[in-house]
Amino acid sequence: MFAIVIIELSMACLVLAMLLSFRYKPQISRFELKRLAVNDKKYQNQLRFLDILPGIKVLVYLLALIVAILICAIAVSAWGFLGSVLAFALIILAFFLGMAFSKITKDLIEKNFAWFNKYFSWAEGIGKITLSGGEPKINSREEFMHLIETGDFIEATDKVLLLGAMDFAEKKVSDVMIVKSKIVSVKSSDIIGPKLLDELHQSGHLVFPVMKNQSIIGILHVEDVVSLDQGAKSITDFMRRVPTAISQDASLEEALQDMKNDRSCQLIVVDASDRLVGLIDIYDIINVLFKK
Question: pLDDT tens for residues 108-164?
Fold first, then answer.
């Protein structure tokens, strides 16, 4: 009698472990599966299996519950309180055995999608009445950005562009402009000569606002004066027209549109009282897209 009980418990524990090992999660998203399934029968079977998987899980876990109850009943009826302790230990053992067998079970499932689809298609209805929910959904902008940052399915350069594009819509001109105190400018009264040219080159900038009485009256590009003779010449003779003004509260999208309409790479930034507060360049906007 003792030997029979041990055999029954061992068999039940093994069955429970096999049921608990039933775990399957696709390596790629359903979207990607649908794309691959267009011309591939294997992926078509996998997609169909995912439809009935919730129902199959319900059946498997229900059977696992019945087997666990059976183990408790057999053990308690044979040894009382000590039997309940043994039953608990066997259920824990079955759980860890199920984790160990899960890789084997997953491989078997992947080789038999068509078999499951043929004999368990009716389980789809069971899955629809459960509370298991559908596929995971992205519920916030932050969650989507986290997915981009941590996902290994996106190249590093693509991550930079995607994250920059996500941030782009949130940025205003005031977030990226060069503030007035940091603008490297020249005065309209300055004379272009060797000394000034040397200073312009040493600054590292290519474009310089031309200032007169705290106002920008034009833009001087280094390329326009780099080939000049060493003779003294007036800056106003070579400066380009003053760029369009834009509010510091405008979006970067608006700034790009204004640059396009103005056919310019710079814009003057003003406050609500039309006072100069900064300057924004096309490169300042590009840096937002390549911020990482």
Answer: 999 999 999 998 888 888 766 654 445 555 556 666 677 777 767 677 777 777 777
Coil, strand or helix at 139? coil
Decide: residue 71, CB within 10 A, 0-12 exposed, 13-18 middle, 19+ buried. buried
What is d(CA 240, CA 33) in angstroms, rounded to the nearest whole number? 56
HSE at residue 36, side-chain half, CA atoms within 13 A, is 13
Q: Which domains are seen in the chain, by residue range?
A: 2-128 (no CATH), 173-289 (3.10.580.10)
List of E strands, the chain: 178-179, 186-187, 191-192, 207-212, 215-221, 233-234, 245-247, 266-270, 276-281
The CA-based angle 60-24-53, given to 5 degrees, is 55
Q: What tens digit of pLDDT does each residue of 231-274 get?
A: 557 788 788 888 888 999 998 888 888 888 888 888 888 888 88
Segments of 5-113 assigned E as strands: none
Check: CB of residue 178 under 8 Å from CB of residue 255. no
- Quick check: helix, strand or coil at residue 247? strand
**pTM value surpassing 0.85:** no
Q: HEC states along 24-38?
A: CCCCCCHHHHHHHCC
Compute the distance between CA of residue 142 and CA of residue 200 in angstroms, rounded to an integer. Answer: 43
Contact criterion met (CB below 8 Å) for 249 and 148: no
Instruction: State both tokens at 101.
Output: 């067998």
Residue closest to 276 by CA, chosen among 177, 203, 186, 204? 177
